[in-house]
TrEMBL record:
Pfam families: BPD_transp_1, BPD_transp_1_N. The chain crosses the membrane at residues 12-34, 108-129, 141-166, 243-269, 289-312. This is ABC transporter permease. PROSITE patterns: ABC_TM1 (PS50928). Keywords: Cell membrane, Membrane, Transmembrane, Transmembrane helix, Transport. The keyword Transport applies. Gene3D superfamilies: MetI-like (1.10.3720.10). InterPro entries: BPD_transp_1_N (IPR045621), MetI-like (IPR000515), MetI-like_sf (IPR035906). It comes from Micromonospora sicca. Belongs to the binding-protein-dependent transport system permease family. One of its GO terms (biological process) is transmembrane transport.
Length: 322
């Protein structure tokens, strides 16, 4: 155990395995705590008219007659062998569904992150250039608005306005993947990315502002200013460059959140991503769909965090030397 604790990579791998196992247990138990099951979701009120023999037969068909512990490890064993389950509603395996939904969610998360960075970082630089001044007040106001307005409200309002007054709603058509029709795909992704990116800009702006204000007080910044370095070069090359670590951390966390936290926006704009897949699975009580999809989201989130750690070593030589 001591050798694992001393080796950063091994420690992270152990933490990753334990985290994913905890997520699997939590999702499994939470779904079983929700009233109803796949039988009642499929048959509705007709399930009440089934005889005891019919109910037992259906429970055996859906695998609900086994003890919960056995159900859990049976599902987990299938996942480890690449079998994520089957969706009777969609008539496809969860692996096939996830292979179609994951690129959509990743594309939306990347576009939203770009929008968030394009809004948040310039606002933070504007605010940090004049602390407690008019610029700072404007930046804080925009950040507060982005943090306060719910995504579902902003998304519904935007969709209503552009559909009613501009008569423009590319999402009303069937969803087009980027490889099928890049132009239509980007049009369909534009408004969801703007909504998510605006909400993402608030934590990025606050984090970047604090980091910039801290770096601005360092001796090397005063030295560079005394040498006559141009203001724009000073802010970008010296201040922003040395404030990247907290910004990268917050961006990585928010990117991971977008992988599973864009459920409402995906539903409003009819984007067939992972969040919408989970929502449909919950509504239909398809345990395998929800459990396996959430586990894929958690795995992707962990991988993003690992890549963020590796990025630290690229942008900060002090981390490489540690």
């Amino acid at each position: 155990m001591r050798s694992i604790a001393r080796h950063p990579l091994l420690r992270r791998l152990v933490e990753t395995v334990l985290t994913l196992f905890g997520v699997a247990v939590l999702v499994f138990t939470t779904l079983r705590a929700i009233p109803g099951d796949e039988i009642t979701a499929t048959l509705g009120t007709e399930a009440a008219g089934l005889s005891a023999e019919q109910q037992e037969s259906l429970r055996a068909y859906y695998g609900l007659d086994k003890p919960l512990v056995l159900q859990f490890f049976s599902w987990l064993g299938n996942v480890l062998t690449g079998n994520l389950g089957f969706s009777r509603r969609a008539g496809a395996t969860v692996g096939e569904m996830t292979a179609n939904a994951l690129p959509v969610t990743m594309e939306l998360a990347v576009l939203a992150t770009i929008v968030g960075l394009l809004i948040g970082v310039p606002l933070a630089m504007l605010s940090a250039s004049r602390p407690n001044g008019v610029r700072d007040g404007f930046g804080q106001l925009v950040g507060l608005a982005a943090l306060s307005v719910p995504n579902f409200l902003l998304g519904a309002a935007l969709l209503t306005v552009i559909s009613r007054y501009a008569h423009y709603n590319p999402n009303a058509q069937g969803f087009a993947h980027f490889t099928q029709d890049p132009l239509l795909n980007l049009q369909q992704m534009l408004f969801p990315a703007l909504i998510l990116g605006f909400g993402l800009a608030a934590p990025i702006m606050r984090t970047a502002r604090s980091a910039l204000l801290e770096v601005q007080t360092q001796d090397f910044v005063r030295t560079a200013r005394g040498k006559g370095v141009a203001p724009w070069r000073l802010r970008v090359r010296h201040v922003l460059h040395n404030a990247l670590n907290p910004i990268v951390t917050m961006t990585g966390i928010q990117f991971g959140y977008l992988l599973g936290g864009a459920v409402v926006v995906e539903q409003i704009f009819s984007v067939p991503g992972l969040g919408r897949q989970v929502l449909a699975g919950i509504q239909q009580k398809e345990y395998a769909v929800v459990q396996s999809t959430v586990l894929v989201i958690a795995t992707t989130f962990v991988v993003v965090n690992l890549l963020t750690d590796l990025l630290y070593r690229v942008i900060d030589p002090r981390v490489r030397a540690a």
